[in-house]
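Is acetyl coenzyme *A placement plausible here? Inputs below.
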Amino acid sequence: MNKDQITIKLLDSPPPYELLLLADPSTKLVNEYLSKGETYIALMAEETIGVYVLLQRDDKTREIKNIAVAEKYQGNGIGKMLLDHATSEAKEKGAHTLCIGTANSSTSQINLYQKKGFVLSEIKENFFIDNYTEPIFENGTQAAHLLMFSKKL
Ligand code: ACO
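Reply from A.M.:
I modeled the complex. Tokens:
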């Protein structure tokens, strides 16, 4: 795969729900993030292969929501490209901190975020139990707590 062919831009077409729901199974929460944040997509030969939403938490803090790469393209460094892009965008918008949250059970995502310089900053206990109607399991572990990772820009 030639990553030079990938462009990342603001969404100007209907939201790619199939991708967005890979990152968060709640359509209600996805719609909330879409309405509050700016949505960026990664395009390759007119195919949408990645997405993330950049949300403003306060004057100095942005948060990445709903980051996802189409399954057949995962593991090729596109997730890292999206994280780098979000970092540049947040910096350009004047943020001092960029954060991202994931479940205690999402081990590859936890590794990825730490590799890209995010540091564990907060644990929201029982977030997934309290906010989702169905229990979520990954690799046999229940998603219970929300781990927040932050990066100084
Ligand atoms: N299995 C295990 N580890 C993987 C895999 C995989 N299939 N794919 C990526 N990784 C890990 C590796 O550690 C890799 O690091 P390395 O290249 O140094 O070995 C690292 O992730 C980065 O890989 P990328 O290829 O850049 O990541 P990718 O393009 O696959 O995107 C993403 C990562 C967005 C997490 C993708 O796998 C995905 O869409 N997953 C499903 C949706 C999801 O869970 N989104 C995050 C939810 S949390 C939130 O949105 C805030």
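Short version: Residues 22-23, 64-69, 74-80, 100-102, 106, 108-109, 111-112, 115 surround acetyl coenzyme *A (CB under 6 Å).
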